[in-house]
Every structure is written in structure tokens, then in C-alpha cells.
């Protein structure tokens, strides 16, 4: 039986190692010249990973400064590109305009695409009636608002030779307008309302994507009936339409305010005269009548794809009033032509 206590006097506390000193300690060296071994065996430790030398402060600061300079340069370039883009957009749409350009946008909700009522509700506030006072009478047409401060695109023949121009918006407000620029070679004009603000600008789409058979809506003021809406399809593209550039030829040739033009070698609504210009047009079967000139041709999403410019009315040849009116032959200036001409019109060009 092993005892668990110590008998008195078995060993002395003066020996710090006790009776087991020989078991765990080391014996004295045999050769006194040798150095004494350690009192215990060293504990093995894992080697520490090498420490990379710290970069000099000057070099670190230089790298930080280099990174900051690079970021600053990137920010400057981005700001310049953004500023140039914004400037180009403003120059195209007007300083205070909200006109969408370049690509088509969803003016009407996706679920209402192609809905004539939805398109009319969305775009009608952007189409106006124009009344021009001429030396020998008056002219009535339509126009499309392209900026909230009252820039309006219309046909040149609507305001050609005008002594004064009055505009009525869809909500019944009347304004006096100034002619800013004209381009008879494209039958386009830009007018500006006096004291207007907060108008709803139309969304200018992309006529390059228009296809034959596409549904379209026309809004204008035929015979002074403001906000008249008709619908149809795109009948053809790139039709060569010839129109007069002489102001004396531009008004009243048909006796009812219709505008003369030439298509397929035939004259419609009177004689175009000797001073003419020809442009590529979108043909539509949407009902167009005198007074629709300068109004909007709109796609299924509510974007302006053309400015209505020429239409044939059979009233001259009609033997009765029941035969008068549109016969489904109307033409519109593609909106991309309008957008490419805006800078010239805004600069005050007259020709």
C-alpha cells in the first residue's frame, strides 16, 4: 500500500530540489571546462514569419499622392464628358426643355402602348394651334412644343410671310409668338412664345426605326378645330415630296388653305411654282386636312416621329361636300430631319 504522506525527517527543505532532484535535473559536467547545461530543456517554438521592411515614409506619401492625382484626373475627365453631353443635350432640346431625343421613350404606360386615347391624352398638351396674319389674308396650322419655355416647331409654309403669329395651347391659353428661324428647303420653322413657361414638351423619337405598317396617331388643328386626333398606319417611307419655297406660292393655292405639293409627277392642291424643294417624307393614311400642317405624327409609344406637312384634299375636284376631305394621302417630315435642323433654326437662320 502506497502511503500518501511523508514521514518526518525523510528529507530536508534546505534541499530546494527535494528527493527528485536527481531524476529531473542534470548531473555535473564530467569535464569542468565544458559549460554547464541548462537547468531544463528549451521549449520548441515555431519560427516567426519574416517581416517585410516598412516602406520609407516619403515613398508611401508619394504613392498616396499619385493615387489621389489619378482619381482627380479621372473625375475631371468624367465631369468634362458629362458636361459636354449635357451641353449637347441642352443645345438640342432647349435650355429649359424636357424633350426626349435620340431614342424612343415610353410616353404612355407599357400596358397602353398603341392605345389611341392614351396617346392623345399624353401628347395633346404638346400640340398647339397657330394662326398667322398675312398681308393678303391668314393661315391656320399646327405646331409641336419642344421646350417648356415655348419653343415650337411647325412648317415654314404655315408662318411664311406672316406679319404676326398667335398661338393657342390645348388648355385654351393664347400667346403671341416670334419667328426664330426658318428653313424653306425642309419646310421647317421655329417660333417662340412670349412669356411662356411650364409647357409640356413633346418627346422627339427616332424616325429611323419607323416601319411600313406601324400604327400612328396624328394630332393637329384641321379647319381650326384644335386638338383633333386621327389614327392610321405608316403607308410608305422615303417618299419624294416637292413643295414650293416661294412665300407667294405657299399660301392659299387651293382656295381653302391647303398647301400645294408635288408627288409622283403630279401637282396637288394647286401649282407649286418654279421655286421648289424636295424632301423625303413618311406617308400615312391617317386623316389629314388643311390645318394639320405642322402638327404631330406620333408612334404607338407616344413619341413624335414626324411633322405633318402635306396632305391631299379632294375638295377642289369634289362635286359635292360629301366627297370633300382627306383621301388617305398625307406626308410628314421625319423627326430626325427636324432634330438635325434645330441648331440652324435656333441660331436664327432664315431661308
Automatic annotation (TrEMBL):
It comes from the Bacteria. Residues 1-64 are annotated as: Disordered. The keyword Transmembrane helix applies. GO terms for biological process: proteolysis. The keyword Cell membrane does not apply. Residues 1-10 have a biased composition (Basic and acidic residues). Keywords: Hydrolase, Membrane, Protease, Transmembrane, Transmembrane helix. The chain crosses the membrane at residues 68-89. InterPro entries: Chloro_Bact_Ser_Proteases, Peptidase_S1_PA, Peptidase_S1_PA_chymotrypsin, Peptidase_S1C. GO terms for molecular function: serine-type endopeptidase activity. PANTHER family: PEPTIDASE S12 (PTHR43343), PROTEASE DO-LIKE 8, CHLOROPLASTIC (PTHR43343:SF3). Belongs to the peptidase S1C family. This is Serine protease. It comes from Streptomyces malaysiense.
Amino acid at each position: 500500500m502506497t502511503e500518501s504522506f511523508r514521514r518526518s525527517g525523510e528529507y530536508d527543505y534546505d534541499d530546494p530540489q527535494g528527493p527528485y532532484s536527481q531524476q529531473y535535473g542534470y548531473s555535473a559536467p564530467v569535464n569542468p571546462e565544458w559549460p554547464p547545461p541548462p537547468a531544463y530543456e528549451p521549449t520548441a517554438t515555431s519560427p516567426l514569419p519574416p517581416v517585410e521592411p516598412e516602406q520609407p515614409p516619403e515613398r508611401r506619401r508619394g504613392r498616396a499622392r499619385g493615387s489621389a492625382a489619378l482619381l482627380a484626373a479621372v473625375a475631371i475627365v468624367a465631369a468634362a464628358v458629362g458636361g459636354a453631353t449635357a451641353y449637347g443635350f441642352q443645345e438640342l432640346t432647349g435650355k429649359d426643355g424636357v424633350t426626349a431625343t435620340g431614342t424612343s421613350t415610353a410616353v404612355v404606360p407599357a400596358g397602353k402602348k398603341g392605345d389611341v386615347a392614351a396617346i392623345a391624352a399624353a401628347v395633346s398638351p404638346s400640340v398647339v394651334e397657330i394662326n398667322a396674319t398675312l398681308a393678303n389674308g391668314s393661315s391656320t396650322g399646327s405646331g409641336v412644343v419642344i421646350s417648356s419655355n415655348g419653343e415650337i416647331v411647325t412648317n415654314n409654309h404655315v408662318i411664311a410671310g406672316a406679319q404676326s403669329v398667335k398661338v393657342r395651347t390645348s388648355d385654351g391659353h393664347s400667346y403671341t409668338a416670334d419667328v426664330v428661324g426658318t428653313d424653306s428647303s425642309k419646310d421647317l420653322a421655329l417660333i417662340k412664345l412670349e412669356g411662356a413657361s411650364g409647357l409640356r414638351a413633346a418627346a422627339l423619337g427616332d424616325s429611323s426605326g419607323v416601319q411600313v405598317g406601324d400604327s400612328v396617331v396624328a394630332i393637329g388643328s384641321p379647319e381650326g378645330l384644335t386638338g383633333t386626333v386621327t389614327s392610321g398606319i405608316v403607308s410608305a417611307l422615303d417618299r419624294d415630296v416637292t413643295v414650293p419655297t416661294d412665300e407667294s406660292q405657299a399660301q392659299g393655292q387651293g382656295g381653302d388653305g391647303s398647301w400645294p405639293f408635288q408627288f409622283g409627277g403630279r401637282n396637288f392642291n394647286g401649282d407649286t411654282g418654279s421655286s421648289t424643294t424636295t424632301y423625303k417624307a413618311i406617308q400615312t393614311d391617317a386623316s389629314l386636312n388643311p390645318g394639320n400642317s405642322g402638327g404631330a405624327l406620333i408612334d404607338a409609344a407616344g413619341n413624335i416621329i414626324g411633322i405633318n406637312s402635306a396632305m391631299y384634299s379632294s375638295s377642289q375636284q369634289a362635286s359635292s361636300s360629301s366627297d370633300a376631305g382627306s383621301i388617305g394621302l398625307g406626308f410628314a417630315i421625319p423627326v430626325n430631319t427636324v432634330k438635325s435642323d434645330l441648331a440652324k433654326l435656333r441660331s436664327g437662320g432664315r431661308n
